[in-house]
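User: Before I run my own analysis I want an independent prediction to cross-check against. Here's the chain; please return only the structure tokens and, at the end, one sentence I can use as a sanity check.
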Amino acid sequence: MNDESAKFSYGKQFLAETTQAVSAVSYKDSFIKTVDHQSSFREKLAQSDPIPETEGKESKKPIINPNLIWEKNAARFSEDQLPSLTTKSIKQLESNFRELMLVEANINTLTKKGNLIYVSSCSDQSGKTISAISAAYGLTFYSHKNVLIMDGNLTNPQLHQLFGITPDPGFKDVCAGIASIDDVILPTRHKNLSVMTIGNMDLPPGSDSCVRQIIAELSPNFDYVICDGSSILTSSVALRNIPAFDAVLIVIECEKTRLEVLQLAEEKIQKSGGPTSIGVVFNRRKYYIPSIVYKVISKK
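Assistant: Structure tokens:
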């Protein structure tokens, strides 16, 4: 993907034309200055205490945080500082508008008791990151929902690259207790869509209880929280984090992912104590007859 961003107007619902490139370095500098005008961001973080462990203790009921409302959060930045998907990415998403219009209806069958969705795959390079972004885009643009997309892939994080920003501060910084959730949730140029990057990759992964605490705090502040997670069969992180979510979407590559592999991934999720709601997303589907024929058949 190129580094072009799209022109944003708060009077419009989403972005339209292409303007200038978004610089990850300049954005991070502006973000740091916004967070703390008096001292450096790193100095402020170093003075913070780690998030306390809550295993075996009943956590307090999460409180709605007005600072996470998209409009209020976006007001902290100028328009050219907000992260954005590229125009090329937007055009690719809009080409699948029929599928994206149905995202909420399909997801609601999985998330009847919650709004936390973990997007995973059986193995790497199945397109789960693009699938997670597509789901978030469909929910915000077509269903007008307030959505947070967060990066939970500790081995190969990609959200920061696709949105043109730096990876830290982010999720791992909150787990380490050196940043607050208010600091790391960034509004994007896409109305009602916020992003949380992976954070400082040099930091250790957060404990299971810490991850649960963060997810529990995020849940009441968004209509949907979508996590671009790790692959089930190539990382133990996925099976550790999945129990904190209400549903799992497994992205499989059509004609490449075998049924036995999918069944193995499903079995591992169930044994991990994860959610009972498991959905499947078919990616890179191949059409062997003209696509117009599929459209005619689907209408019957």
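Sanity check: Residues 128-142 form the longest helix (15 residues).
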